[in-house]
Each structure stands twice: as C-alpha cells, then as structure tokens.
Amino acid sequence: MLHLSPTPVTLWIGIIALLVIGSLSFLTWKRSPHRSRTAALEILRMIAVLTVVILLWRPEWLTVIHPDTKPEIAILWDDSKSMSTIDAELPSVISDKKTIVSRADWVKQALASELWKPLEAAGANEVSTTPFATPDPNQPALSGTDLEAPLSEILKPENNLRAVILFSDGDYNLGHPPVAAAQKMRLRGVPLFPIPVGSQSRLPDLDLLAVSAPSYGIVGENVQIPFSIRSSLDRQVRTIVRLRDESGREHTKDIVLPPNAETFDSVLWRLEKEGSSTLELSIPVADGELIATNNSRKFVIAGRPEKIRVLVIESTPRWEYRFLRNALSRDPGVELSCLLFHPALGPGGGKDYIEKFPEKLEDLAKYDVIFLGDVGVANDQLTKEQCSLIRGLVENQASGVVFLPGSKGNQFSLLDTDLSDLIPVILDEDHRQGIAEAIASPLTLTTEGRSSLLTMLGNNEEENPGIWRRLPGFYWHAPVIKAKGGTEVLAVHGNHRGKFGPIPLLVTKPAANGKVLFMGIDSAWRWRRGVEDLYHYRFWGQVARWMSYQRNMASGQRVRLFFNPERPEPGSTVTLNANAFDANGAPLEKGIVSIDLTAPDGRTQRIDLQKNESAWGAFNGRFKVDLPGAWKIRATVSGAEDKPLETTLLAQGVEIEKTGQPARPEVLDEMARISRGRVIQPAQIADLIKEINALPEPRPLETRIPLWSHWATLVALIVLLGIFWTGRKLNGAF
User: Fold this and answer.
1) DSSP conformational letter for 697
2) Among residues 306, 302, 312, 282, which one has the least CA distance to residue 404?
3) pLDDT digits (tens, 9 = 90+) for 54-99
4) Largest Cα–Cα separation, the chain
C-alpha cells in the first residue's frame, strides 16, 4: 500500500497547489472551443500536478509480510581458533564442579544442557544453533573472526526471528565492525543477547611472538637472529632460549623476562654449511604457563660462500690503513682493491692495488663496499665528480661506504661534495685535524651497539661487553659535534662528553638502498695487542658483510635483486629493487626488467619493474603478500639470453587468530546496547530463558520502497509532462 509522510507545511502547500491548479484548469476548460480535447489535456495537467504534490509528501510503497511460521530463536556460537583458549570456568547452572575448560568446550557443554528446552516447550519457538568463523583447513593462518557477517546474514531471509543469542569471546579481526549488524537488528526489532565466554585477563603464558632471521648468511660466520617474547606471567622469569638445527646442533642463551612485558633480544648462530637449513627457536614451558604451543618457531636460513668486493681509498699509508688492508686481504671472503694517493711517492702499487679511480660505471659498480680514509677532494686525490659516483653507487646499487677520517682532516673537503649528506655526523670546522689526547680513552657501547652484529667481537652476547672493556683505547678521535637525525650510534667516547652529550664515534645510517658507517678513531689496529688478529679482523669482516648483505641478497649474470622486508607477513607490501646490466656489465640504460611471481598456492603474476631516473640501471616495483609460505621470484632482462635470476621469498605464517588473548566483553556489551538487548552473564542463562519467553511476538516484516527517490518515478513524470506538452501543441494546431 501507499504510505505518505507529509509535514504540516508540505501538506498545506500541496492542498493549495491542487486547488489553484484545479481552478485554472476548470476555467480553461470552460473557455475552450474544443472542450473534449481541452478536458483531456487538463486531466493530464492535474495528474502531473497531483504526482508532484504526492512526491512532495514523500510517498513510500509499504509491503507488510505477516510470518506464517513459528517464532525463531537463533543461537550463534563462535567456532574460531581463539575459542580454544583454556580460561573459561563452567557456571553452576551447567556443572556442579568449578572446572576451567576451553572456551569452545564451555560453549559445547552449554548448548548440550537442558537449559534451552523451555524455549521449545509446547512448540512456542523454533530454536536453531549455527557455528561461525570455523577455520579454513586449507589456509588456517588466514582464518579469522567476523562478528558482523553472521548476524547480518541471519537477518536476510524473511524469517520470523524473535531474538538472537550469541556465544563469543568478543574477539574479531575480519569484516566490518559488529555494531553495524547490531544497528540492523535494532531496525528489525530483534534484540541481541550476547553471552561472553573467557577471561578478561591474559592467561599466564610466554609467547614467542616473532623471529626476524635474515634470509641468508655467510658460511663460517655468525648471523644475528632477533626475536621477541611476550610474558603475561605476573613474575620475573629466568629462562633459556634454545636455537637448534635439524642435525641437533644447538646454541643457547640465558635471558630474563620481566613480568607482563615484551622482550626484544637476539641470538647468534654460526652457519657451518652451504644451502638451506631449518632452524627452530624455542623456550621451555615455565611454571604456571597454560599454553605451550606458542613457545617455538621454525624458520629457514641459507648459507652461502661469499666474495665481497671492497675498495679502500687512502691518502697516506697510516697505521690504520696498513692493518685494515692486511685484515681485508687475508679474509678469504673478500676481494680487495686499494687506491693509495701518496702525496710524495705517487699512487701505491703492488698486489691488490689499482692505479686510479675507476673511470667506467661498470668498473665502479662491481664494488660492494668502499672505505674512504683520510682522503678528500684535491688535485692528487678525489674529484667532485668521483664523489658523486660514490654516492650514486651507494644510493642506487645498495653498496656501502665507510668513512675513516684521519689527523690530516682531508675528509672536511667532502663536505662540499655530494657525499656531504651521506656523512652521518656533524664535524667541528674549528678542529680539522681532530682531537689528540695523552691518555688512552675507551669506546663505550650504546644500547644499540650492545645488540648490533657489527660490534659483536665475542662468540656470544654474554662475553662481548667484557671484550670491549678490555680493548686498548685510542689517543685521537675525529672532531664530532653530534650525530645527524636518522642515524644509529653504536659507540661513544668513554671519557669525554660534548655539548650535546656523549661524543658519537661509531655511527651508522641507511642511505637510500645502501648503508653508511662512520668510524671516528684511527686506533682500531691497536685491538691486536695480545690477541693478534682476533678482534681486529673480526670487526672489519663483519663490517664488510653487513654492508654488502642486501646488495648480494640475490645475484645473477645480468640482474641483482633485493627486497624489503625480507620476511614479510601476509597483508604486507614487498618492495622489489633490482640493478640490471647490459652484456658488457655496464648499468642497463634501455630495457625492461620483469619479475615472474609464483605464490605458495601456485598463482602466478608478472610485474614489470619501473626504471629509476638514473644511469645506474636501477629498477623497482611492489607486490602484496597475501599468503604465508615460499614465494618464488624469477627476474629476467628483456633481450637477454642469460639464465634468469631465481630466488625465494619466505613469508612468515603469522596467524590472524591467536589463542591466549583476553576476552573482549566490551565489544559484546556495545552490540547488545545498540540492538536493545543485554549482555547475559553465564550464571544468568536461566533468567535469559524467561526474558526471551516474555518478549512480544515478532512484528511483521515491512518492506518500504521510497517512490519519491525512485528512478522509475522520475521517468514516469517526464513521460507524463512530455505527453502533456505534445498535446498542448497539437491542440493549438487544429
């Protein structure tokens, strides 16, 4: 039927309009010589005016459906993984014993009880039970809880719904906010009675949240494996982190976990073989801990033999340069080139020496790390153009640069070049030759330095601080005022402070795709005292490998590929960076780099990387990870006949739905309030039966079609006015 909703103003406007137009139509008909034709036109006019007036009164076509079935009571129960949390106490109405069970078992016992029989007594209601959020066995990691969808779905059929009972812990992580469904229930006049299940406080638990291992490491070297652990115990816990491979070899570390807090730490692992290894990081189950399944994580890391290409540039053969050169030349994983600008004797020569700075991009692009000693811009040293090339190598090809200033102060001339932005500290112009001291001063590790792989001189984290305290000190340091923003200070002056606090002397920073290290002392060679090459060689070897890690993540004949993040989680976006080369080894200027992706479920897609506006053959692109597991990547260069580069990206299987989380009854309370129901505590289930039986019969289902905003109404009005206008023209013609 037609339902009108006029306001007093629009009602009188419509009535007056009908009276006025009706009077004019009557006069027109009286005066017309062709009364029959004029009468038809005026009737059309009145129909058009009446239509407009009715539209002004907001007409709706109302359909009322009277249900012919029994009133329905729908019971929805949460079947998600979070319901396996063991923290629900059975109420007295279900069990005489106070027993702690899982939330899922609590719901099953409640549904199996005799509490619901009175609802169906004498055929008064029809009771249905439906689970929702059941995990997908094929993709359990991506399964979650959507509270809105099942409630909205149950409202779609034209059923005789009287009330909805919801068993849930209130935790949701998918879909629309559940209050949207509660609002729909309010409009239908269907109250929601949620029954919260589970404890509002977190279970006593130690949860190994994440392991952020690198994708590869160098055979024979240590890799640093960061991890995070969350403790919900109310006491401090001393425990052991155990890292073990498939052969049974293991490494342990003692840690202390504070109560109700997250702990971030790392453990070292020495790679002994080439190829992929599956490692497991685990912690033992603590006293009082209820969940043991989240105390371990497995991951894969690859061991590789590596050849790192290093270029050392220096002005004079000072002690720091000589021992650095020896350390790198004796490292079996390093291919060394040295460029020595000797002001009196000319360029250095001999094994590992080059005569001049590489002139071609393809010659410079092969270096993974460049060490810049006490060298700057001068006639017999570097040029500004060469400084620009070094910056381009770092930013576009993910190489690293190490600044090693000296007492001659030549590096101050770099402040007028493109390398100025790469230097991670602000230098004091008034002390270009640096600051000399009569007494040896130590380097003191910062919090970041104590956890960095660069400063790990011992075999484990426990002995490392003692090693740094025993290292011989330095007598000279660079005139550093402070570190720039966005840097990481690993070590500071142990005896003196500057205007801005401790003087930073070992500083790192990212530079686009590459890395930068600043070493503000020239006495690292003194670390050899009493231990020979043990700490000195280890430090510079770790620096070279840390700086070249990303650049050598995946290398082929014509393309080099690196990506960030290394171990993405489902839902995150991965940035792909590639450096492509032509057949001569020069950076690719014209061509296309294509990436063929194969998802863990077999889906494939192709991504054409976009070329950067540079002469370094740099390309980049993005894709979204939507599944955990191994993503196979195949990179090709257009026109190249060489073997494509193939690598694998491992997406961490982080599950959306987690156990051990506290229940969220506040979500259920808001839903009940909006739907005009109420939250029912477990002990009140018997009262709920009485309350539902006291509810009125479900009101008829109404369907309203707003004619005043319907497209068909507008079309009909236009057609009506068109007929009236055409009739007026024809009436005047004959």
Assistant:
1) P
2) 312
3) 777 877 777 766 665 677 888 999 999 888 887 887 877 677 677 7
4) 128
Q: Is the pLDDT of residue 733 over 60?
A: no
Same domain (yes/no): 278, 426: no
Q: Report the alpha-carbon distance of residue 103 to residue 84 in Å, rounded.
A: 6
Same structural domain, 332 and 272 = no
Which CA distances in Å does 468 have to 324, 411, 441?
19, 27, 12
Cα distances (angstroms) measured from residue 128 to each of 71, 93, 163, 525: 11, 21, 11, 79
**DSSP strand pairing (443-445 vs 474-477):** unpaired
Beta strands 604-608 and 645-651 are unpaired
What three-state secondary structure class fits 339? strand
Strands (E), 458-500: 474-477, 480-483, 488-498
Q: What is the pTM of this model?
A: 0.65
Number of domains in the chain: 5
Question: What value does the mean pLDDT take over residues 95-123?
Answer: 80
Question: With contact defined as beta carbons under 8 Å apart, do 536 and 524 qualify?
Answer: yes
Over residues 322-378, the pLDDT tens digits come to: 999 999 999 888 999 999 998 767 677 788 899 899 988 888 989 999 999 999 999
535 shares its domain with 401: yes
Site of tokens 């977190």: 202
97 and 177 inside one domain: yes
Nearest in space to 667 (alpha carbons), one of 336, 210, 196 = 196
DSSP H or E run through 103? helix 103-112
β-bridge partners, 629: 651
Helix (H, G, I), strand (E, B) or coil at 606: strand
Q: Check whether residue 384 and residue 314 sit in a common domain.
A: yes
Taking each helix axis as running N to C, give the angle between helix 179-188 and helix 148-155, from 0 to 180 degrees, rounded to the nearest 10. Answer: 20
**What is each CA distance from 113 to 94, 447, 505, in whole angstroms?**
7, 58, 71
Residue 154 lies in a domain: yes
Query: How many C-beta atoms surround the C-beta of residue 562 within 10 A?
Result: 22
* Closest alpha carbon to 135 in 567, 671, 659, 668: 659
> What distance lies between CA 215 and its chain's CA centroid?
18
Give the pLDDT band of residue 734 (cuts 50, 70, 90): very low
Please, which residues bridge with residue 238 across strands?
256
pLDDT score at 493: 95
For residues 268 and 295, state if they share a domain. yes
Q: By percentage, how much of the chain surpasses pLDDT 70?
A: 94
What is the distance between the terminal CA atoms of the chain, rounded to a whole angstrom?
A: 42
**pLDDT score for 86:** 79
The structure tokens listed for 659 are 């156990």
Range of the structural domain that residue 247 is part of: 206-304
